[in-house]
């Protein structure tokens, strides 16, 4: 028969039980012993990924007493698996597994340049294929009135145009105003270039640099950020950091969604 052996450890030295909290997405915690505070974005077996307010992500082990929730020490646990959420496209739409691309509509969406087209494809590509919407780029909008006339928009062949720097008094706004067809919708964003429609947090920078007038904007951005002055490579880096609509500014999101609605209605 085993003899009873009491725990002689002083009460003040015994580890106190701490609350266990499920690491649900969006839960904001502080990592014990550090100054890192962030929201849960993923939780795998044995680790949790946190994202701070600057968009920086770090992975931490799910150790006992490893986190603080509103100043209280807690142990994070892996959330219980619930019903699987429907898969989403990069634009946030519900994905349609196995869906085939629709035959292209007569309507089109025109954007100013290749970078605009690549960004739209990256976020809305799945949706556009299902809807049968083709996106083409114009290499600028100086000849937009002639392009529209050549396209000959109609009720069953609507045209949508996305314009950079569409602000009152700009050259772009004057050109857009000269197109009066009821079957054409021209919308835009206020940024000098579509690069700026990517949130700085997605790139790990505080803000897009201000480039003085008279300088090539993209080259100036590369210089200000310490990147090689290769705008093509810079754009590929920027594009690679865009994984969903959450990485884009709301102004661009609203404009593109409006265009898709216009050409598919």
UniProtKB/TrEMBL annotation:
<dbReference type="Pfam" id="PF11296">
    <property type="entry name" value="DUF3097_C"/>
</dbReference>
<feature type="domain" description="DUF3097">
    <location>
        <begin position="108"/>
        <end position="264"/>
    </location>
</feature>
<dbReference type="Pfam" id="PF22845">
    <property type="entry name" value="DUF3097_N"/>
</dbReference>
<dbReference type="InterPro" id="IPR053883">
    <property type="entry name" value="DUF3097_N"/>
</dbReference>
<protein>
    <submittedName>
        <fullName>DUF3097 domain-containing protein</fullName>
    </submittedName>
</protein>
<dbReference type="InterPro" id="IPR021447">
    <property type="entry name" value="DUF3097_C"/>
</dbReference>
<feature type="domain" description="DUF3097">
    <location>
        <begin position="20"/>
        <end position="79"/>
    </location>
</feature>
């Amino acid at each position: 028969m085993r003899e009873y052996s009491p725990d002689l450890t002083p009460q003040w030295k015994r580890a106190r039980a701490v609350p266990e909290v499920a690491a649900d997405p969006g839960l904001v915690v502080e990592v014990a012993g550090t100054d890192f505070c962030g929201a849960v974005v993923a939780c795998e077996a044995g680790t949790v990924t946190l994202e701070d307010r600057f968009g920086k992500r770090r992975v931490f082990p799910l150790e006992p007493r490893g986190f603080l929730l509103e100043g209280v020490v807690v142990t994070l646990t892996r959330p219980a698996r619930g019903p699987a959420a429907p898969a989403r496209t990069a634009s946030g739409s519900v994905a349609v597994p196995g869906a085939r691309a629709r035959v292209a509509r007569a309507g089109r969406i025109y954007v100013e340049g290749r970078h605009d087209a690549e960004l739209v494809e990256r976020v809305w590509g799945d949706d556009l294929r299902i809807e049968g919407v083709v996106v083409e780029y114009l290499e600028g909008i100086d000849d937009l009135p002639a392009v529209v006339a050549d396209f000959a928009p109609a009720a069953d062949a609507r045209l949508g145009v996305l314009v950079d720097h569409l602000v009152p008094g700009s050259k772009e706004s004057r050109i857009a105003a000269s197109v009066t067809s009821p079957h054409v919708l021209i919308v835009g964003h206020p940024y000098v270039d579509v690069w700026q429609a990517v949130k700085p947090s997605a790139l790990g920078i505080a803000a897009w640099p201000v480039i003085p007038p008279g300088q090539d904007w993209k080259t100036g951005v590369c210089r200000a950020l310490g990147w090689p002055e290769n705008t093509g490579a810079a754009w590929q880096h920027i594009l690679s950091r865009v994984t969903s609509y959450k990485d884009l500014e709301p102004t661009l999101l609203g404009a593109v969604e409006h265009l898709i609605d216009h050409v598919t209605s």
